Amino acid sequence: MLKATTRSGFWCECWTRHLDDSQPPTLFGSYDAGTETEANNWVSEILRTISPALDSDASQEAWERLYDHRINTRRALLRRVPWTVSVIHARTLITWTVSPVTFLPMAHRYGTELPSCAHDFKPHATP
Description:
Blueprint: E1 7-18, E2 26-33, H1 36-50, H2 56-67, H3 70-78, E3 83-89, E4 92-103
Antiparallel strand pairs: 1-2, 1-4, 3-4
Helix pairs in contact: 1-2, 1-3
């Protein structure tokens, strides 16, 4: 029997969008954080890592977010309020989002009988 235990956490995403075309944003990466500290650190480490490669305006904006707005970010996450930060570099908008979520447990497939339709699945042949 599946035990219905949930846990609170944060879903973090990084999206990019080129400002010169009408293409939809692209998901660059995601991360499931268990605590507000972990979520905040995920965004902070990425901003620290890429800031030297950003143009001067985007780099300055990233460092302001990291240091000047850190308390506001922490407060928002502690209140479980969604949080977003964006920088623009070379006509590319980079956006990080952190959203409070409730993680559901995954069903353990081993040792249980799969439904009959599971055996009907046929993978596509690769050319």
